[in-house]
Amino acid sequence: MPTPPKTPNLIPARPRIAVLLGDPGGIGPEMAVKLLARQRNLDAARVLLIADPVVLAAGERVAGVKLDPLRIDGLDDLRFEHGRPTLLQRDWMQGREPVLGESNEASGRASFEALELATAAVRRGQAEGIVFAPLNKHSLRLGGLVHEDELRYMQERFAVTGFVCEFNLTGSLWTSRVTSHIPLKDVASHITVEGVGDAVKIIASALRRAGVAQPRIAVTGLNPHAGDGGSIGMEEIEIIAPAIERLRAEGYDARGPFSPDTVFIGARRGDVDAVVSMYHDQGQIAMKLMGFEQGVTLHGGLPVPVATSASGSAFDIAGKGVAQIEGLQQAFDLCVRMASGGPVRTLSSAETAA
Ligand SMILES: NC(=O)C1=CN([C@@H]2O[C@H](COP(=O)(O)OP(=O)(O)OC[C@H]3O[C@@H](n4cnc5c(N)ncnc54)[C@H](O)[C@@H]3O)[C@@H](O)[C@H]2O)C=CC1
Ligand SMILES: NCC(=O)COP(=O)(O)O
């Protein structure tokens, strides 16, 4: 009879994480290769790298590192060896080198197909999480994405009928948003009592899972100065304040509506655990200024953690070898912790370095 391990609690769960290179024309391949060149990441998880070989080779050249993957032919053949990523490669680019610094159909298709394969691995019960290096939404569209964004695409692939929402994390502060990747001119018509309620509830639930028993959630207004008593717009009075009242009656510690331009002053000093904004830039400009390098995006509402860096495809520095990977590292760490049932917060730089 085999001897049971003496210290089972110290054995890492090593969840299976699908890792994607992101947009071939950007810094994603370089970032993903740098991430997987860190031995501690291969010790923490069983990595399934899904990649086009030409894009991977380009990423290796820019990063100045060569990975030593275990190659498999398909998901039916999935296996892992400790300390090496498993590589499932597909010739999406048909042998063509990625064109750095631009969006095009080939890049979009390669990114999109890799995402499709990663969701297939999850659906087949062969991966407990997904981490992708930065995608580019314009390329994705050229490559066939018809959804609002990759989150809504994954929602459909995972047959999630409930509300999904992007979370952006920097340190211990979280944000969610009522609208996400839609034109600014359409935002006001998408702000509803139900939408505000959904965005607060989903982040409250995520924070509770992260160990915050009664999350304090600040809700922004839509208009300058949260409407200034109705003199600069009525959405606060007619929609957002009633939504907050309803949430408070249901037991949520929702506060506001706060002026969108100043809400992060209190949030930064720890007055709240999360900020729910009405649209992308209300939250992301502040979050990126507070911690662009460490920022993480988590795709809330999906059956498994799907995480990426807050930073994007950075076409302006593609191929230069200067891409930082702290955000992607944080995304990977968070995904591994969530997939193995551990704490959900992001770590400080000192903790990450330890
Ligand atoms: N994780 C993801 O998949 C994300 C994807 N995006 C996508 O990226 C595309 C471009 O977005 P932008 O707004 O131009 O923002 P961006 O984050 O790609 O670039 C903004 C600025 O930050 C710099 N930068 C970005 N990442 C860096 C890194 N890792 N190391 C050093 N410098 C870095 C860039 O050089 C640029 O000056 C869009 O299509 C957007 O949808 C944006 C954010 C996250
Ligand atoms: N799905 C990742 C993503 O869209 C991140 O970009 P952002 O819109 O949160 O800036």
Automatic annotation (TrEMBL):
The enzyme's E.C. designation: 1.1.1.262
Alphabetical UniProt keywords: Metal-binding, NAD, Oxidoreductase
Superkingdom of this protein's organism: Bacteria
UniProt protein name: 4-hydroxythreonine-4-phosphate dehydrogenase
Key word Lipoprotein present: no
Primary enzyme class: oxidoreductase
Molecular function GO terms recorded: 4-hydroxythreonine-4-phosphate dehydrogenase activity; metal ion binding; NAD binding
Listed PANTHER family: 4-HYDROXYTHREONINE-4-PHOSPHATE DEHYDROGENASE, 4-HYDROXYTHREONINE-4-PHOSPHATE DEHYDROGENASE 2-RELATED
Organism: Variovorax paradoxus (strain S110)
InterPro entries recorded: PdxA_fam
